Amino acid sequence: MLLGIHHIAIICSDYELSKEFYNKLDFVIVDENWRTEKQSWKCDLRHGPVQIELFSFPMPPSRPTRPEACGLRHVAFSVDSVEATARLLRARGVDVEPVRIDPHTGRSFTFVADPDGLPIEFYEFDSRRIATRRVRSCRHPADGAHLVRWFQAG
């Protein structure tokens, strides 16, 4: 059924500032459209296989809390080196939280916030975890739909 995540949709309060911020994360604009009927910009940004749809709307409400509101909590990107990513982003003027270690995985991670306070996490990629996974096909217990499940080999 699911093949992957197609895109991440983000509503921003300052369109130009948000485009500049995501450019600092190495996203490039692949398409940009003014939608007259909605008085809204829609910008497609891409970095490798990751696509962000950035929207502007007149006077969108602010995020109620950071990050503990219902709905999307944060966006997380895999990186080879959290330390190197943090150094690069700091050099580009992005405020980066101190690098921490996930007590459950032993992997390093850090957060930044976009101009509207959306938390963005950078998490150390674990190639061993991907290499040791296998695919198992099964049926959904409720309706018999075909599912593909990942499980840890070993």
Helix content: 10-25%
Number of helices: 3
Distance between the termini: 26 Å
Low-confidence stretches: 131-136, 146-154
Overall 3D geometry? globular
Identify the strand order in the major beta sheet: 1-4-3-2
Beta-strand content bin: 35-45%
Task: List its salient traits.
disordered C terminus, four-stranded mixed beta sheet, 154 residues, globular, 10 strands, alpha+beta
Describe this structure in words.
This protein has 3 helices and 10 strands, in the order βαββββαβββαββ. With 154 residues, the chain is of the alpha+beta class. The strands form 3 sheets. It has a 4-stranded mixed sheet, with helices on one face. Strands 5-8-7-6 form a 4-stranded mixed sheet.
Q: How are the elements arranged and paired?
A:
Blueprint lengths: L7 E5 L2 H10 L3 E8 L4 E8 L2 E7 L18 E5 L2 H10 L8 E2 L6 E6 L5 E6 L2 H5 L1 E7 L6 E7 L2
Outline:
16% of the residues lie in helices and 40% in strands.
